[in-house]
Design a protein that fits this description.
With about 575 residues, the protein is an alpha+beta fold. Helix content is about 20%, strand content about 30%. The protein binds (2S,3S,4S,5R)-3,4,5-trihydroxy-6-oxo-oxane-2-carboxylic acid.
């Protein structure tokens, strides 16, 4: 699926703004035919999570109905029109002018309907029913019946199997767009280098016999090819490679041609880089690189997951200011706008599916696997052309001590590798050496909380344990080890001397201690602090104010003491 874009051949209109909304706690809307239209009880912004908008929506997970009307979208004659949702959490059913277009399960990834032939009459009316209830057969799961063998059972209200708020609503942009009938359907770009020459491999999806013109420009003379082949390799002499600190981008233009004239055009920024696993090292453009950065969340006090561009930019500025070069899209794929910034500003991204807190009891397992397959596929299709994306993460902290986990992840890993043979594939585990899937995955990603959930408040005991634990993983797997989470809650403005749990001083000391130990282990190829910012989660006794305070910046993006530690370690600041 090519991302919607606007040019001579493609039209685009965003439907974002103020939409009508109605809460439907008795689930009456479907029976009463609200798909044809309904009476609102308020207005809500789109995109945004509804939970941050009103007190009665605070913990409400649905159903909720959205409605908007707009003047008809006129597209050039003979073109096709699509209605695309960037992300609706969690289950969406969509009607246009009273006609049910279909439904979609799973938040965080786009879906679309073709609406070329939908009858129009005056203003168009779009209705979306959204529902985000927590259920064991969903991904991520929730309301999982208690079982003593599984970790993290029912600690939260609402009963999520994960530690962040299960925000609901239309959380990313909704657009109408058109493509010419004879279009460029898809584009897959991968890059390599041959000495100083960069190789850009472009593969276009279009019916056989189509003709193309492709151009690669930027940093030197533009390169152009023309002809019937949907596949091309551009050889870029003295290529400017893409990397953190020097994120050079080229511009690729692909035109579909007919009788010597273009009938469609697609533009894509291209970063020329290689990324690979070599023994215990990660190599970027052939040189070892250590990932420094964060696990994050899309979370803001006004819009929930529907961050504004400004809020997003602020997060990137903060990451740059501490000298970070990477992040993980914990625990779901982020907005495409996030990856645009990562491409432009030079961040290496571990792109993660929404499979957080998976459990492997029989109930609902088949459906969870089918959903994970769909989500892995949709994520790779959406994000495969971003130079910033260097690794796929299939899951976060699955309860993989049960035997059913191994075939589950073998299946997903082989799917990911078939769809994208160019990027390493991993998952993030709390099990360490006991995570069986690390035997066939490309890197070892672990979350570590010595000094917090174990040895609380006691760094003198915690840090030697960390050191031993890392060594055992290095010995066992002989692959790059990334500590994808470590940290401590610090309530902003809370101080203690000597450092104690929940103080900014303790968080700073723990992060400092971890970084020093990891720096001594050559097989540790990455350190991601948990988390960039404080974020909202479900209520729990270990989550004061329904907040996770492990951010090194507050939810208001103001720095805590740990920021100084990171600047010293990652930027050499004194
Ligand atoms: C983890 C989870 C993350 C939590 C974090 C914590 O291991 O992956 O989602 O928020 O721990 O703070 O407990």
């Amino acid at each position: 699926m090519i991302r919607p874009q606007k040019n001579r051949f493609r039209k685009l209109r965003a439907l974002d703004g103020r939409w009508e909304f109605r809460k439907d706690p008795m689930d009456l809307g479907l029976r009463k035919g609200w798909g044809k239209g309904f009476k609102k009880d308020r207005f809500l912004p789109v995109p945004a999570s509804w939970n941050e908008q009103a007190q009665d929506l605070w913990d409400y997970l649905g159903p909720g109905w959205y409605q908007t009307t707009f003047r008809p979208f006129s597209s050039p004659r003979g073109s096709r029109t699509f209605l695309r949702f960037g992300s609706v959490h969690y289950h969406a059913t969509v009607w246009l002018n009273g006609l049910r277009l279909g439904s979609h399960e799973g938040g965080h990834l786009p879906f679309q309907f073709e609406v070329t032939d939908i009858p129009r009459k005056g203003m168009d009316r779009l209705v979306v029913r959204v529902e985000g209830l927590l259920r064991p057969d969903r991904v991520p799961p929730g309301n999982v019946p208690f079982h003593p063998k599984d970790a993290f059972n029912n600690q939260f209200n609402p009963p999520a199997s994960f530690d962040f708020f299960p925000y609901c609503g239309i959380q990313r942009e909704v657009v109408l767009y058109s493509t010419p009938k004879e279009s460029v359907r898809d584009l897959t770009v991968s890059t390599r280098s041959d000495g100083p020459t960069g190789l850009v491999h472009v593969q276009v999806a279009a019916p056989e016999g189509s003709e193309f013109r492709m151009k690669l420009s930027g940093h030197g003379r533009p390169l152009q090819v023309e002809g019937p082949s949907p596949e091309t390799v551009f050889r870029v002499p003295q290529a400017k490679l893409w990397a953190p600190g020097s994120p050079s981008l080229y511009g690729l233009t692909v035109e579909r041609m007919k009788n010597g004239r273009p009938v469609d055009r697609v533009d894509l920024p291209v970063g020329i880089r290689t990324f690979e696993v070599h023994g215990e090292k990660l190599l970027l453009n052939g040189k070892p690189i250590s990932l420094k950065g964060f696990g994050r969340h899309e979370d803001s006090p006004r819009l929930g997951r529907g961050l504004t561009d400004r809020e997003r930019q602020k997060d990137f500025r903060n990451m740059l200011a501490v000298g970070a070069n990477s992040y993980r899209t914990s625990h779901y794929p982020y907005s495409e706008k996030d990856l645009d910034l990562a491409d432009r500003l030079g961040f290496l991204v571990i792109d993660e599916t929404p499979a957080v807190g998976l459990f492997f009891r029989k109930e609902g397992l088949k459906k969870r696997l089918a959903l994970c397959r769909q989500m892995t596929r949709d994520m790779i299709e959406r994000d495969k052309n971003h130079p910033s994306v260097v690794m796929w993460s299939l899951a976060n902290e699955p309860h993989s001590h049960r035997p059913a986990a191994l075939p589950f992840f073998k299946d997903l890993a082989s799917l990911a590798r078939t769809l994208d043979p160019t990027r390493p594939v991993t998952l993030v585990s709390y099990l360490g050496t006991k995570e069986a899937s690390f035997s066939f995955l490309d890197t070892v990603c672990v979350n570590r909380y010595f000094g917090w959930y174990s040895e609380p408040g006691d760094l003198a005991k915690a840090l030697p344990r960390l050191s031993k634990d890392l060594d055992s993983m290095g010995r066992r797997f002989k692959k790059p080890v990334l500590v994808t989470e470590f940290g401590a809650d610090a309530i902003p403005g809370s101080h203690a001397d000597p450092p104690a749990l929940f103080s900014e001083e303790y968080q700073a000391a723990l992060i400092d201690g971890y970084l020093r130990i990891m720096a001594r282990k050559p097989f540790v190829a990455g350190a991601h602090v948990w988390n960039l910012n404080d974020f909202r989660t479900a209520q729990a006794t270990h989550r004061p104010n329904g907040m996770n305070y492990k951010g090194v910046f507050g939810r208001d993006r103001k720095p805590k003491k740990a920021v100084r530690v990171l600047k010293r370690a990652w930027k050499g600041d004194r």
